[in-house]
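I would like you to help me understand the sequence and structure tokens below and explain how sequence relates to structure.
___
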Amino acid sequence: MDNVLVVGGTGVMGTAAIQALRHQFGGTVRILANWYGKKDDGISIEGADETLFGDITDPECLEKIKAFSGGKFKYLFYATALGEVGSPIAKVAPEDIAHSNRLSFDPILHLEEQLDVDLIVAYSTFYTVKHQLATYGAMGYSKEAIEKWTIEKGRSQHACIRAGLFESPSSRGIKLLLRKSAKNPEKITDPLIRSYFENRPSSEGIKLFEEGIFNEEKEMYGDCRTTQEDLYQSHLALFEKENPVFVNVCGKKIWHTTEPLLLKDYL
């Protein structure tokens, strides 16, 4: 029986990964789902065989992961991230990038080194669309690091699911920071973002901002408004593809590519 590790098992992507694993493999895989936050001993992640609470950067947590399977996993889904958002990607300070990478990217490298994994799947977004370039902050660099890693050779095979805008902690964080910035729209440096908040309530500006992202995604990729079901389907597409690299999902549209999105081509 194969073993699978899902880091960030309580999140949107982690949930989609577990659902897809159960659909694809049924009871023939053992799933260890890791999560971290305000501790609740009563949490049991649906679909997982075991739920592990712990900071993925903590050596003790890693030892518990190794104990689950002797360190051998068929898949590792790295579905957790934390970093500064709400500011233009081009204006992020190096220390903010390093802080974002500390959870959003660096542990992927450490887990690949410490575990024996056939395929590691990480997650990205379309951070090079105009609206994301203006608001995705340090997370943009962490996602770029993931995309560069995806095409590198490593101990494990690498793949990445790249998704359009969906409701997540990052998207909520961006909206919260924009709502605060809207009190003084003249201080918003990006003219496109500023235009959504000038002479109107912040709530209306947020709606216009989201619609702007959806319109841009639809224009560039053919669909928008990515849902939990769409994310689930993107994982099934990953399983069905031999040697997947980038699985793109934007709304109902899912397609495969092999090239990373590089910020130098857009900034």
